[in-house]
Structures are given as structure tokens and as C-alpha cells.
């Protein structure tokens, strides 16, 4: 097995991407909540300001000028709103503007994730719109001031003017600060540098140990062992300096004291790092992405801000929503556990042990199996994440489509705490997004249509997740107009999809037509639908996850789409069956029952297909040796075994030679050759070292 090499990006860049994405998600959630309430509360205004200030500072430190300048523009807007909170503002317009900025910032970060080496300054129009909006509310606020004349002799301040007036003789106060970060937060040197970046505008002199935070490879170890020490002189209030220092992420403890003089060992020549020898610091990074950040002064400072509250809020949000471990390491750990499961099976089922009296060995083997199962459960639980983050993203889709389509709708989330494997969560985002868009476009009627139908003007879309045994059920339910069976059936016959009569088709089969490629009942093509592309891709993506999708609808009442997926795709429980010299694995959750059948139970339909009667019910029967073209040990129905499988409400009987037993199965990807064979979803290595194929019950059922 190849050694784990980790991310190809710099750790510092990984942390920037991660923290920026977290902050932008938090920003979007605040804005959507505020827009729904039609008011921005004071704490929300402060939170947005703090988020943009953090993004601006970290992106400037990383030299991503397009990100820092856009974040700076939004920060200026909320600096004014925060300091003039008594005024009345057009909050929907503000939310629109900031959401556009958030989208632009996300796009830039996605470019960085994709490894693009240059970021273009292509958000100038958006920055101009933000500045014009700011100037507009500034002018409005000035005009509304009673008994005061605007001072036209003084131009509006566009840039930050330093607090220091070198002509004054005020004495500077000297300080010493000792900072300790949270244990295990990693990259303490970069966090220390960010702190220095925030302090430099407030200080006339600034020294720190370690002196070289970027080039010194031992800087992080020194900070962990001894803390980060700073000496600086400033005229800024001590409380404001303390807030800036405490504002850095993952700060655990700060000791800030006034001193008379700097220690003799601290001198500009000896201790002032090269990065601070200029007015503005800069970092030279290997393989730098983007152009150097413009030297933009801080236009607002950090006065009157409870930075400790910011740090605690952001830290709490990050810690409660993420696994602070690289996902590649978790994937490697899961692979190792899979190998251990296979090796344990190979040891305990070794053919050389057959017939031997080994009581002590079997006792130890049972203990090993118990520990292996516990290890597997722990590793799987580490990979499980709440689906809340994926669900929350759907709010934005409903909000944007409501505005564009002129419809009123609200999204209700249920079961957000349901946990799903990290890899499955990533794959679920696109199908869920498409189904929610369909509910808005096809399902929810216009306000006039809902009023005419006697419904409330505002439609409802309910997104719910729940655990059911070894599966996750996710439903997308709307109270819209529902599916029109007659129209779907007419469209299906027009495309030659079915020739069956109305009596021969079930409601489920008719609704299933909308999952076929190229099928659409939309008369006109719009931005959101009508091209016949989408639902078939949704179905394909869900099937790849080992899941299924079911549709239930009542005309005039609404539609419910239900997705069923396994908790994880990595290790499953399976039943091994033998067909000739070959072995196959059937996922246990798909097996309804197994039984011996009599020859008299087998019948054939008019097309020659085999059916089997079980307790008065008739099921189609598939002989696995015919499906995979292998020579069986028996073709006699009474000598083999029948396994009844069920998928997406469809039951099918499989005929095999015999059952070999149940076991844990570590799913391995198929070689390229086998991907062309229908009915196989993966493979696994058995305890005896042989390879067994895993059946795709979804494809077989179809």
C-alpha cells in the first residue's frame, strides 16, 4: 500500500481555504435568516463585520488581492451600518448585495482549490455597487440629521488615517504580551503572524519572539513550548489592543502587561523581523497563488468589538461541524481496517486448521473478531457527519428561485442531526439540489394559482432525513400541484417508451418515466428545466451510491421524492452464495428471505420468462448461472436455493446452488473490464484469499 502523502497544497493554504469556506457558510446562514425576518439584528451586523474582517485579513496575508479587496468593501459597508445602527436601512437590498459578494468570494476560493495560479480582479462592478450603496446610505444619514449642516469642506474619508500624529509629544505606552494557543490547533506560527498583521497599524514599535515566523522551521515548536511573546509601543487604548490579540482564532490565554522599557535583549537590529521592517508586512510563499495583496489600510479598526465573543463563536461553529482530520487520512484508516477485517478472516478460516482441536486458538480468534468489529464501528463513526450542512445549503436555492420565479415558498428542515458517511454527504449535494429545484419549478404553483386552489399563498418544501436500520431515508416533499399521470403517460407514449394499456401500468411505473433520460413534460425550456436532462442523472448518482429513489404524488396535493441510501459504502454485511465454482455476495439489507422451492412452484409467462409462486404471490426468477454464463452444480429447482431480494419496492427471486454464510464484506472497486458487466457493483477478498463479486441488486431488479 502506498504511503499517505497528504494534501498536495501547503498546510497554510489548506487552513485558509477551510476557514474561509466555514465563514462564508456562516455568513450565508446569517443573511438568509435576516432576510426572512426582514431585519438585521445588532449581533448579526457585528457577526457579518467580523466575518468579513477575518476573511480580509487572512486573504491579504495569503496575498489573494481579489478576495481581500472585495471583503474590504463589504467590511466598510457594515462598519458604517454598525456605527449608525439607529438608522433605517433597506435590509433586503443589503442581503442581496452581500450574497452576491459571498458568491464571488466562493468562486475565488473554488479557483484556489482547483489550483489556479492567478486570480483575476473581475469583481470591480460588484465593488463599485457596494461603494455606491455605502455612499447612498451615508448621504441619506447626513440628510436626516436634524439641525445640522453637512460640512462640504471636508471630503468623505475613503482610507484609514493613522491614529498617530508624529507632531504630538504624547508618550507612547510600552507593552509585553504573552499568547498561548489552543492545544492541537496547528500552524501556530501562521496564527501568530496573523496577530502581528492585525497589530501593526496600531503600533509604533513591534518586536516578537520567535522573530522569523515564516522562515524558521522551529517557530511553531517554540510557540507551543514557550508561547508567543510580543513587545510593542502604542497610543491605542489597552482594551482595544487586547481585543485585537484575543481576536485571533484558537487563542487560549493572553497576558498583556504595561512595561517601562523593552528588555535589553530586544532591539530593532536584533529582534525586528524582516517581514515587519517595512510599513506593510509581506510573505513570500512557494508557488504563490494570485498577485500580492494591495497594501490597503484598515478603514475601521476594531474598537467597540467583543473579539473574545467572535473567537468563541467561530471556534464553536468550526469545532461542532467538522472533523479536524484530513479526509485522506480517514480514507487510509478505513482501508487499513478493511485489510485487517480480510486478514482476520483469512487467519480464522485457514484451511490448514480444519479438523484440529484448537480451543485456545478459537477463543483468541473470537476475541480478535470482537476487537476488529469494535475498531470497524469506531472508524465508521469517525467518518459520520450530520447532514445539516448539506441541508442548510438548500435554503439559498429556495430563496433565489422564489425571487426569480415570483413564487413564495419556505423550506422546512427535519432530521438535520442525522449522520451520514462523509463520502456520501459529498455525493448527495447535487441530487438534493436538483430535487429541490424541481419542487420549486414544477411543484410549487404561483401565488395566484395557489389562491385559486384554496391553498396558502406561501408554498412549503419539507426536506427530511432519518435513519432506518442500515439505511438513510431522505424525503423531499412539496405541497404543490403534484404530478399529472395522464400527461406523463401521454408523453411516454409519444416518445415510444411504453405500449402498455392504462390497466397494465401501475402508478409507480408511470411516475418512474420521469426518471428516464430525455423525458420532460415541460412545454418550454427555462433556466431551470425543460431540457429533459436532470432526473435521469439524479437517479444514476443515487444508484452509484447503492441507493434508490421512489416517487409518490397526488394531483393537486403535492409530490414526495424519497431517497434511500446505505449508511456507508465501505464495509457492508453480505450473504455469500455459490454458483458452480464461483462465489457471489448479496448485500444482506436487500435479502427478504431464502427458501427451498419445489418444481411445481415454477411457471412460465407467455414470453417464456420464468416465474415462481411463493405463498400465493408470483415473482420473476433469475438464474444466476444464466445471468453470468457460468456452469452450475445443479439446474434442478428443488436442489438449489431461492433468495428473494427486494429493491425499490420490486421483489425478484435469485436461483443459486447454495448459501455459504454471512460475513463482513470490504467493498473494493471493480477493475475496468468488469465495469462493462451489468449486475455487479463491486468485489471483495474472501477469507481464503479468493475474490468474490458483489451483486448490484438495483440493476438485477430492473
Assign a percent range to the helix content.
Answer: 40-55%
Radius of gyration based on Cα positions: 32 Å
Strand content: 15-25%
Structural class: alpha+beta
Count of helical segments?
20
The main sheet comes to: 6 strands, mixed
Strands of the largest sheet, in order across it?
14-18-19-17-16-15
The pLDDT mean sits at 77
Overall geometry: flat
Distance between the termini: 37 Å
Count the E strands.
22
- Identify low-pLDDT runs: 1-7, 142-169, 267-322
Brief descriptors of the model:
single chain, alpha+beta, 5-stranded mixed beta sheet, 41% helix, 21% strand, flat
Describe this structure in words.
- This protein is an alpha+beta fold.
- Helix content is 41%, strand content 21%.
- It has 20 helices and 22 strands.
- It has a 6-stranded mixed beta sheet with strand order 14-18-19-17-16-15. A 5-stranded mixed beta sheet has the order 6-8-9-11-10. Strands 20-12-13-22-21 form a 5-stranded mixed beta sheet.
In short:
With 702 residues, the protein is an alpha+beta fold. The chain is 41% helix and 21% strand.
Blueprint (SSEs and pairs):
Elements: H1 11-37, H2 42-61, H3 65-83, H4 91-113, H5 124-143, E1 173-181, H6 188-199, E2 205-209, H7 219-226, E3 228-234, H8 238-246, E4 251-259, H9 268-271, H10 307-321, H11 327-348, H12 359-383, E5 384-386, H13 388-405, E6 409-414, E7 419-421, H14 422-443, H15 447-452, E8 459-468, E9 471-478, H16 485-494, H17 507-512, H18 535-544, E10 548-554, E11 558-566, E12 571-579, E13 582-587, E14 591-595, E15 602-604, E16 610-614, E17 617-623, H19 624-627, E18 641-647, E19 650-656, E20 658-666, E21 680-685, E22 691-695, H20 697-701
Parallel strand pairs: 6-8, 13-22, 17-19
Antiparallel strand pairs: 1-3, 1-4, 2-3, 5-7, 8-9, 9-11, 10-11, 12-13, 12-20, 14-18, 15-16, 16-17, 18-19, 21-22
Helix pairs in contact: 1-2, 1-4, 1-13, 2-3, 3-4, 3-5, 4-5, 11-12, 13-14, 14-18
Amino acid at each position: 500500500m502506498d504511503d499517505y502523502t497528504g494534501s498536495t497544497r501547503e498546510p497554510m493554504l489548506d487552513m485558509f481555504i477551510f476557514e474561509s469556506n466555514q465563514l462564508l457558510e456562516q455568513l450565508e446562514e446569517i443573511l438568509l435568516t435576516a432576510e426572512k425576518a426582514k431585519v438585521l439584528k445588532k449581533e448579526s451586523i457585528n457577526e457579518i463585520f467580523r466575518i468579513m474582517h477575518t476573511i480580509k485579513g487572512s486573504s491579504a496575508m495569503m496575498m489573494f488581492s481579489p478576495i481581500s479587496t472585495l471583503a474590504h468593501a463589504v467590511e466598510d459597508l457594515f462598519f458604517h451600518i454598525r456605527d449608525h445602527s439607529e438608522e433605517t436601512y433597506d435590509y433586503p437590498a443589503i442581503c442581496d448585495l452581500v450574497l452576491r459578494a459571498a458568491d464571488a468570494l466562493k468562486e475565488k476560493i473554488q479557483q484556489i482549490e482547483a489550483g489556479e495560479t492567478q486570480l483575476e480582479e473581475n469583481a470591480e462592478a460588484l465593488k463599485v455597487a457596494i461603494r455606491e450603496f455605502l455612499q447612498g446610505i451615508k448621504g441619506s444619514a447626513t440628510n436626516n440629521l436634524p439641525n445640522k449642516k453637512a460640512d462640504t469642506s471636508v471630503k468623505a474619508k475613503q482610507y484609514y488615517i493613522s491614529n498617530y500624529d508624529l507632531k504630538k509629544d504624547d508618550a507612547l505606552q510600552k507593552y509585553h504580551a504573552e499568547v498561548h494557543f489552543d492545544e492541537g490547533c496547528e500552524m501556530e506560527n501562521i496564527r501568530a503572524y496573523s496577530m502581528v498583521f492585525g497589530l501593526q497599524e496600531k503600533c509604533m514599535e513591534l518586536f516578537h519572539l520567535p522573530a522569523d515566523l515564516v522562515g524558521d522551521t522551529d517557530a511553531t515548536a517554540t510557540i507551543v513550548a514557550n508561547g508567543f511573546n510580543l513587545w510593542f509601543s502604542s497610543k491605542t487604548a489597552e482594551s482595544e489592543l487586547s481585543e485585537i490579540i484575543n481576536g485571533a482564532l484558537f487563542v487560549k490565554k493572553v497576558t498583556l502587561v504595561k512595561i517601562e522599557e523593552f528588555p535589553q535583549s530586544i532591539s530593532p537590529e536584533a529582534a525586528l523581523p524582516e517581514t515587519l521592517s517595512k510599513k506593510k508586512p509581506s510573505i513570500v510563499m512557494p508557488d504563490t497563488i494570485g498577485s500580492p495583496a494591495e497594501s490597503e489600510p484598515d478603514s475601521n479598526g476594531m474598537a467597540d468589538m467583543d473579539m473574545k465573543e467572535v473567537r468563541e463563536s467561530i471556534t464553536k461553529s468550526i469545532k461542532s461541524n467538522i472533523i479536524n482530520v484530513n479526509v485522506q487520512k480517514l480514507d487510509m484508516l478505513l482501508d487499513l481496517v478493511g485489510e485487517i477485517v480480510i486478514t482476520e478472516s483469512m487467519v480464522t478460516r485457514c484451511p490448514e486448521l480444519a479438523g484440529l482441536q484448537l480451543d485456545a486458538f478459537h477463543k483468541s480468534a473470537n476475541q480478535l473478531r470482537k476487537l476488529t468489529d469494535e475498531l470497524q464501528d469506531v472508524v465508521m463513526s469517525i467518518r459520520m457527519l450530520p447532514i445539516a450542512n448539506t441541508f442548510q445549503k438548500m435554503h439559498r436555492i429556495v430563496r433565489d428561485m422564489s425571487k426569480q420565479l415570483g413564487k413564495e415558498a419556505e423550506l422546512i428542515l427535519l432530521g438535520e442531526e442525522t449522520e451520514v458517511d462523509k463520502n456520501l454527504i459529498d455525493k448527495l449535494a447535487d441530487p438534493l439540489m436538483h430535487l429541490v429545484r424541481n419542487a420549486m419549478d414544477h411543484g410549487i404553483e404561483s401565488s395566484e394559482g395557489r389562491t385559486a386552489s384554496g391553498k396558502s399563498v406561501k408554498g412549503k418544501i419539507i426536506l427530511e432525513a432519518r435513519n432506518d436500520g442500515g439505511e438513510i431515508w431522505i424525503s423531499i416533499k412539496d405541497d404543490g400541484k403534484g404530478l399529472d399521470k395522464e400527461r406523463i403517460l401521454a408523453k411516454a407514449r409519444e416518445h415510444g417508451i411504453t405500449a402498455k394499456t392504462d390497466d397494465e401500468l401501475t402508478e409507480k411505473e408511470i411516475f418512474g418515466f420521469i426518471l428516464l433520460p430525455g423525458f420532460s413534460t415541460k412545454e418550454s425550456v427555462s433556466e431551470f428545466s425543460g431540457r429533459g436532462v436532470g432526473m435521469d442523472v439524479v437517479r444514476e448518482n443515487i444508484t452509484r451510491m447503492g441507493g434508490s429513489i421512489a416517487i409518490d404524488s397526488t394531483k393537486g396535493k403535492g409530490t414526495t421524492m424519497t431517497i434511500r441510501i446505505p449508511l456507508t459504502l465501505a464495509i457492508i454485511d453480505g450473504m455469500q452464495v455459490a454458483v458452480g465454482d464461483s462465489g457471489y455476495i448479496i448485500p444482506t439489507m436487500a435479502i427478504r428471505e431464502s427458501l427451498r422451492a419445489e418444481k411445481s412452484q415454477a411457471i412460465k409467462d407467455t414470453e417464456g420468462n420464468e416465474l415462481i409462486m411463493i405463498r400465493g404471490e408470483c415473482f420473476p426468477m433469475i438464474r444466476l448461472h444464466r445471468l453470468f454464463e457460468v456452469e452450475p452444480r445443479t439446474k434442478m429447482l428443488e436442489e438449489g436455493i431461492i433468495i428473494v431480494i427486494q429493491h425499490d419496492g420490486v421483489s425478484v427471486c435469485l436461483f443459486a446452488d447454495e448459501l455459504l454464510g454471512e460475513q463482513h464484506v470490504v467493498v473494493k472497486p471493480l477493475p475496468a473490464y468488469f465495469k462493462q458487466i451489468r449486475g455487479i457493483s463491486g468485489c471483495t477478498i474472501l477469507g481464503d484469499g479468493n475474490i468474490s463479486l458483489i451483486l448490484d441488486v438495483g440493476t438485477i431488479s430492473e
